[in-house]
Amino acid sequence: MGKIFQYVLDTTKNSVFYFHFILLDTAPSLCYAFHETRVHVMKTFLTGVIVSLLIGTTGMAQDTASFKGSEVLPELLRSESGLQIKTLDEWKFIRQPELYETFSKEMYGCMPGLPEEIKYTVFESSTNALNGLATRKQITISMVNNAHKTSVDLLLYLPNAARGPAPLFLTLNFKGNHAISDEPEIKICEKKMAPSDKEPYPRADASSRWPLDLILGKGYAVATMARGDIAIDGKGFPTNNVLGLFPELQNRKDNFTTIGAWAWTLSRALDFLEKQPEINPRQVAVLGHSRLGKTALWAGVNDPRFAAVISNDSGAGGAALSRRMMGETIADLCRAFPYWFCQNFQKYVGHDKEMPFDQHQLMALIAPRHIYVASAEDDAWADPEGEFTSLMLANPAFELFGIQAALPATKMPLVNEPVHGHNGYHMRTGKHDLSRYDWENYIEFLDKHFEH
Asked: Residue 146 is part of a domain; what is its CATH number?
């Protein structure tokens, strides 16, 4: 055993990918092995060493306690037939399609094509928005399918000082477009965001999450839609929203879900936005916080037009590894929010550690584009270490595209010390939220990759 560890230690200097597969090739059941009792002190110590090398955790006691029994994450680069994926073609034509099919059938649900009719109507605009900082446009996206009609409002801000087509942040919001700014011209969303809502949220109620002066001042456009305008964040199958466009996709185990509807509508907004001369269609980042961060990841997997995918505190069902069972679990997700995921996902309740896939594989489906994952120090429910580790373990997929150390870190970074490479990560001080500090880092990161 000592020789094996010496060999591993000598080879970790090269890359995480090499180290990870040296471990798997040497001792497949060793990686991520933990024991909850003190009877197996030596085994606990040795497996703690492995995990400290993989994720560099400073909270080893807490992390070790999060695993009960021996765990091995599902392999990223081994196909269902057992083929070890070594080339880009093998990834593109074998592993990537089967991973996508797994997440689609077993977790996020199927995704429909275009509706029979879709129309975009600019119903309000101003070139002097936000005291001259931006041009504001409000667009209604009207859709018809199977004789069902629905519409969603898109709010767009364009930086007036842009020297050319601007990069864009495309996002969803929790409280309505009118809640991100105090501008009285923004249409109030009358649809409920969640079943418990009794009236629309106040104007500018969520403006702290939208530092428009920063975003637009740095030359970025920003567009947003309200979650409830797309599909209400609640149980049941409502017909007055996007889900109602595709009723035939409900009576199946891989049904079209609420997260799926949110993600699908982000792509329908992009259909319009990429054609606007003020926007650079090759520099669009999809961003989401919390459950909308889960949505951003799924949207990024489904739509390669998103050049960057940003997950802010998305936790379980998003960036965090399910098998760690830290914070929110599959049981928690399916009990409180069964409509987020497809019916097939229910069978993994209580079987988190037996699930044949995990979120590092979802991250890998976004390669070779950019991913940024952010966590908050006081947000244990979202499992920051699980979010970081998931992104790090996606590195091998990026290596197939010739991108070495896409996330250039093999250990959890310190609080407020971001890691920016091809992919990015930071954990900031504070609680579960989307803050100005988060936006500052997203902009700094994208400035390195988006020329504007």
From this structure: 3.40.50.1820
